[in-house]
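Protein: Glycosyltransferase involved in cell wall bisynthesis
Species: Paracidovorax valerianellae
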Amino acid sequence: MCWNARASHRDDGRDRRGTVRPRGAVKVLQVITKGEIGGAQSHVLTLCRELARRDVNIHAAIGGTEERPPLSEALCALGLPVHRIPALGNSWNPLQMARALRTLVALVRQQRPDLLHAHSAMAGVVARLAGLLTGTPVIYTVHGFAFKAGAPWKRRAAAFAVEWMLAPLTRCMVCVSAYERQLARRLPLPPARVTVIHNGVEDVPNQGQGRTSAAETLPAIAMIARMAPPKRPDLLLQALAQLSATLGHEIPATFFGDGPDLPAHRDLAGRLGLHAATFQGDVDDIPVQLAHHAIFVLMSDHEGLPISLIEAMRAGLAIVASDLPGIRELLPDAEHALLVAQDAAALSTALRQLIESPALRARMGAAARQRYEQHFTAERMGTAVQAVYATAISRTPTTP
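Structure follows.
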């Protein structure tokens, strides 16, 4: 846990309660279920960095029992106060949830933020209940509804019931894609309180200005994904085996990301005889790593608006991905990417197109990079979120 003067004592700024806050800054407590490396965590880190530049008073509350989770370390490095809620996790155990709620309520009463901003499903549950108990407005960013098609039916039913009950406690629901907003229409929440703000990532100098010579001589493939459902690295491994048989040689591929299914995927690569497929685990220099690759693949059973694809767009890579609603929002046509069915043969065919055509790879990579610059920067995301904060604070508690 990292503490500084703002985090270690009761804050005397109470804009929401009638006292003018020092520096006039809006104070927001970001709440997220876990601090591991993942899409939601990357989003929170980018958002906190962007908002802090705009003089928003940012605190973060992170769940989980990991002693020094990556998100906590990154936020502390920015000088932002981080609070831990060990009982907050993915468990539906009522006693554990009650402990998490009690801790968050105490934190809110101590720190007196103007807003709570929750990320991920369980944080959304606990934060909205804490908001009810403390009179604090809650923004809830949906990184992907658990009741969407593709998720197990029991999980879908439970997730929908919870979101239905808690929707009235949401001052504003932020969806990362228009598809998620369509799903939100099934909830008892006025349309005016649901908005779409696409994920954004910060630009990196010299990104999208060409691959390394090695990457173009032998076009290597990259995939960034947590090794757990809904991600499907197994489909890429099967496609690589088919390509090897067709081309007579292996195509190098690197898998970035950790997770419970990592041993199983390594075992599958061995059984398929894929000696050029490597698993790097979590890395903190993604832009550097992507510069050594020419093609990016993301196969998933369902998605919100995957940040790893935005990172690939920023890098100017040619992209092959699952044909899913959120991904189509990022990459709307064949000019920007090849979107394929959840099938190893279809993926293998698309990859062969790119491997055999350097010109096609270059055109698609340039188009993806341009789309990133126009629509998916951190600056655009920060501006939109800041506007949501202003609207949420200006509304009275009785606003429907």
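Remarks: The first strand starts at residue 27 and ends at 32.
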